[in-house]
Design brief:
113 residues
Length: 113
Amino acid sequence: MAEALSFNIDALQTFLNTAMGELAKKNDAFKVEIVAIKEENEAAVTILNTKIEELEGELVVCRVVVGNGVLSATSSHKINVPKSKYKGARSMKEVNFLLGIRVILTCNRHQGC
């Protein structure tokens, strides 16, 4: 019986040693994969940081262009208001006459007077 136990212990030890060897190999492979993933992530972060800096520069340019556009838009546009050609004074009779004509023309248009 002692020999059977000794054989079982030896078999278990061999099995454990084999399992430990396989786990060590898998662990080493896993570490290599982790290092590769870290390097890929660092490269991606570097690329993204570069792109962010480029976009921030473009944003500054856009803000300057829009800011200048707004300033020039408000200062360069002038409203063209028609000016009266008549420079003299009008008497009340003329004003009443013109208002009377306006009323007549309005009534004729609507056919209500």
